[in-house]
Amino acid sequence: MSSIAEVQKEIVSEFSECTDWQERYQLLIEMGDELGSIPDSVKTPERLVPGCQSRVWILAEEKNGKVEFQADSDSAITRGMIALLIRVFSGRTREEIKNASLEFLKEIGLDKHLSMSRRNGLYSMVNILRNS
Question: Is this model's pTM higher than 0.85 or not?
């Protein structure tokens, strides 16, 4: 498995191939499309991410000391954002997740191209993943 830093570099590389923000949003939506859905039975209020404009559910399961994440959202862009975070965090130990620096968000410019409410939602998702 690639390190968190390596996965972030891969993401930055993928986004750097896009020529404008329209293409980057399209890439984000495509990444969200690749995210498997979670059953409606686990889309409970307890799993909803607070502070998100869209509804986002996150499910975390620890297996052999590693945390595996699943998520779903009713928004295509938000689904893409959570897909990126899961790609970085899933399959890691809790310590790796808590200590990870998420520089790729700044490097791809995502944090600057989101509305304030989406940016708040993004950081709420990060906090939920870090504390799951």
Answer: yes
Rounded Cα gap, residues 67 and 50, in angstroms: 21
Q: What are 39-81's pLDDT values in tens digits?
A: 999 999 999 999 888 999 999 999 999 999 999 999 999 999 9
Domains and CATH numbers, the chain: 4-130 (3.90.1010.10)
Catalytic residues: 52
Tokens 């404009």 — which residue? Answer: 53
